[in-house]
Amino acid sequence: MFSEKKEKKITAEPGSAQNRINEGTNLKGDITSTGFFRIDGTVEGNVKTPSKVVLGKTGVIIGTLSCENADIEGRFEGNLQVSGTLSLKSTAVIDGDVIVGKLAVETGATMNASCVMHSGTFKSNSEKDQTHLDNTKPHPYDRQQRVKKITSQPETE
Questions:
Q1: Which residue, 48, 46, 49, 50, is CA-closest to 61?
Q2: What Å distances lie between residue 153 and 29, 32, 134, 145, 146, CA to CA?
């Protein structure tokens, strides 16, 4: 009756625990957590969490950041994937590729990146290719298509 061992289920839900990388700390490698991150040091590698990431004024990430929400005050270089809201503070410097659900930018922030906005979910490459193919079909009100049609018709007198 009491000897049954119950297995603990491991889930990837956002946790309430806070992970902090303080100023003066340099990490090289990949970090995965279910909790909130505050980074004031330097991380060279990939950071992945289903929660929020705050990159402080002295914080630097060089690599990939994948999270739900992010507030950036420091420097980021690489691929940034935020399914929710990305908030760039006035001291933020972003270089690389950004995929985001929502974007908020304060005056003074620097963003040298290609940016793609999605509605909370990221598409796979095959879905992106299909969307691109769907967008290449001629639109019935496209002026260029009408001009081509008119000029290609032989004149009748």
A1: 46
A2: 63, 62, 27, 13, 11
Query: 41-55 b/e with 16+ CB inside 10 Å = b?
Result: bbbeebbbbbbbbbb
| Cα separation, 29 vs 46, whole angstroms | 7
Q: Which residues pair with 112 in a beta bridge?
A: 95
- pLDDT category at 118 given cuts 50, 70, 90 is confident
Greater confidence, 114 or 143?
A: 114
* Integer CA distances (angstroms), 116 to 49, 51, 82, 107, 135, in order: 20, 20, 11, 20, 16
pTM attached to this predicted model: 0.67
Q: How far is CA 90 from the centre of its chain?
A: 19
- 149 CB contacts (<8 Å, ≥6 apart)? none
